[in-house]
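tool_call: predict_structure(chain=1)
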Amino acid sequence: MPFASLIGAELVSASPEEVRGRLDWTPERCTTGGVLHGGVLMSLADSIGAYCAALNLPAGAGTATIESKTNFFRAVREGYVEAVSTPLHVGRTTIVVQTDLLDAQGRRVARVTQTQAIIPPAS
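tool_result:
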């Protein structure tokens, strides 16, 4: 995913049951006060969650995010953020993924729930 690379996201591990990614805190990714930008956090979660969905697709199918909800719990001012994505529902037309974002101390920064459309292969 070119965009994931652009924001500095790194894939740590991946299986259909769980995908982990990581993003380092840097001043260029912050809003005022040295707080990691919420849009960067949402982009990390969307990218890692989409990868989780892709690992659960039928052969030849594609996916696209059609809904995403984020709850923020704390600011990140240093270190890194780890994303942990797991599938909640793998259906015929959609896949729902939950992604927890954790700071370097393992505290929950945000929880993201996204719905991914399953795009069948072209016939």
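agent: DSSP finds two helices and six strands in the chain. Proceeding to next step.
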